[in-house]
Amino acid sequence: xxxxxxxxxxxxxxxxxxxxxxxxxxxxxxxxxxxxxxxxxxxxxxxxxxxxxxxxxxxxxxxxxxxxxxxxxxxxxxxxxxxxxxxxxxxxxxxxxxxxxxxxxxxxxxxxxxxxxxxxxxxxxxxxxxxxxxxxxxxxxxxxxxxxxxxxxxxxxxxxxxxxxxxxxxxxxxxxxxxxxxxxxxxxxxxxxxxxxxxxxxxxxxxxxxxxxxxxxxxxxxxxxxxxxxxxxxxxxxxxxxxxxxxxxxxxxxxxxxxxxxxxxxxxxxxxxxxxxxxxxxxxxxxxxxxxxxxxxxxxxxxxxxxxxxxxxxxxxxxxxxxxxxxxxxxxxxxxxxxxxxxxxxxxxxxxxxxxxx
Length: 358
Description:
- The chain has helices spanning 58-71, 106-116, 120-134, 146-163, 167-177, 189-206, and strands at 8-9, 29-34, 39-41, 50-54, 81-85, 91-96, 99-104, 256-260, 266-270, 276-282, 285-293, 299-306, 309-317, 323-329, 332-340, 346-352, 355-356.
- It has two domains: 8-206; 214-358, Single Sheet (Histone H3 K4-specific methyltransferase SET7/9 N-terminal domain), CATH 2.20.110.
- Helix 3 packs across helix 5, helix 4 crosses helix 6 and helix 5 (167-177) packs antiparallel against helix 6.
- Helix content is 24%, strand content 28%.
- The protein has a ten-stranded antiparallel β-sheet, with no helix packed on it. A seven-stranded mixed β-sheet has the order 1-2-4-5-7-6-3.
- It contains six helices and 17 strands.
- It is elongated, with a radius of gyration of 25 Å.
- With 358 residues, it is α+β, with helices and mostly antiparallel strands.
């Protein structure tokens, strides 16, 4: 996520006259910033020159529990100091005198949870900052770089999958806080979302959340949006997608896996309908990224699959020229998406079981 570098902690002492351990015995500590050390800021904004920190608050203990929860799936113990700093309006990772810190603003974290209506947003922010520490970004002396953000984003996506978050949950924070435009230190929001998606899908490939018992050889076409429900699309007739044209009986096009590894790898599989799929497989199922083609060779669907079903983000191309781009679950549009009519009109909504609900 957004990370602005080239800020630093020069000292945590209130005055140079007190030589005490970091944050020891003091209810609040002022952190005057100067240049020198790396600070990874989640939102990319500048941090106040004088940060007031409270290392012993109850919310700080909660934050430590969140950090422990993030580290547990990867088998690591917490070796970061977690401290609440009330006027940062941010969350960031830094190193001071060899000690690694996760610094956060409790009000900022509570606000993002309220805005996104889920605590996964705060957890993903913490995971991102931990990712910076674990990958050495805070100690390499090279400041903020877009590649560091991509790596931390991917780590966040992987960990949130392991914690039980959906792909949509894993990306909710960056969608709310990410910048649409790239900077010298941070990629644009779409690139960050893609990095989280890759991390999440990588974890899914290694540790599937669930597998369906019934496996279908060819994913069904999603139903067109219902125009009789009085929704925003009610005035627009949507033509039901036509069945892919069949090939002449004399056509002896090979059926089955025609190239690559259609069991556990990347390959091309041709179905009896002459439709085909090119992409990733797992245990003989379409699983991962891939493209479905109609029998005439035109693209039918491009996106992600789980256990032979269209899942997560993808684009479906209807025979009548309409198109749906958005989130899928169990073959059906579920989540945020846009239905494009062939003449240029569109319906942008949240879909449930293939129908817009708002």
